[in-house]
Amino acid sequence: MTTVFVEGAAIRAPGLNGWAASRSVLAGIDAYAAAPPDLPAIPLPPAERRRTVQTVKLALALGIEVFAATGRALADTATVFSSSGGDGETIHQILAALASDARDVSPTRFHNSVHNAPAGYWSIATRSHAPSTSIGCYDASFAAGLLEAAVQAAVEDSAVALIAYDVSYPEPLHSVRPLASLFGAALVLVPRQTPQAMARLDIALRPRAGELSSMALLALESLRRTAPSARALPLLAALARGAAETVTLEYISDLMLEVAVAPVAMTSPRLPRRQDVAADA
Questions:
Q1: Which CA distances in Å does 115 have to 13, 110, 206?
Q2: Which one, of 65, 95, 85, 112, lies nearest residue 167 by Cα?
Q3: Among candidates 57, 45, 63, 71, which has minimal Cα distance to 124?
Q4: H helices then E strands: how many in the chain?
Q5: Of 19, 103, 129, 176, which is most buried with the most CB atoms under 10 A?
Q6: Distance from the Cα of residue 245 to its chain's centroid
Q7: Contact criterion met (CB below 8 Å) for 143 and 213
Q8: Are the beta carbons of 29 and 277 closer than 8 angstroms?
Q9: DSSP letter string over 210-224?
Q10: Could you tell me which of 142, 161, 22, 16 has the C-alpha nearest to residue 78?
């Protein structure tokens, strides 16, 4: 078992534009309404900014948001970037070029197709020389990234940011790998409790047994199923509720990732529960 603490969280998805705006929805207090995701401008030099693709914009927006919540220095913190397949539009354009008579591939498209391209842009934007890992594990990509980040934080005795993201593929790739339009989540994990910590996570690999964690609200459960990174939703919901509970996440083969969530003292106020809202009405 690996134990870490969560200092900050971020989310960008349809109807979930940032952790502060989404906590009450994830906790089941406010209604969920699907809406186009909002991606803020990213701090890159103009030349690099023109070359960015959707995965880079999403990953950097998540990273900037989650670090803003912790007050940690972006350049000094290790990162784990997790995605099931990278930028779908870039892959589509490269395959289309290779299937044409010209077969010329743009150098910009080529470097954006590399799985660790968001990590490279992150180092440029933040001037970071800290270690960075890019990982992909098909539908288990979020769980694999979470396990990797937690183990790094515990072994290296330092903070690690997990940034998980997926974007859709255009046709004909979408027909064989249907993904949501966009989903991303981020966590900053630390090896011991700090004043900024919102929860403790006890993470363990277990033999897969029973049903994996899901979302009670049908619309959010549908969203959870649309992208590998969206498998983070039950964990994010547990963090938003601020209650002790156990979340089980999809992993490889016959394994699952069991995450016991325990709240700790937080600097931000506790969200009201449903019964609190009803009592005040």
A1: 21, 11, 28
A2: 85
A3: 45
A4: 11, 9
A5: 19
A6: 20
A7: no
A8: yes
A9: SPPP--SSHHHHHHH
A10: 161
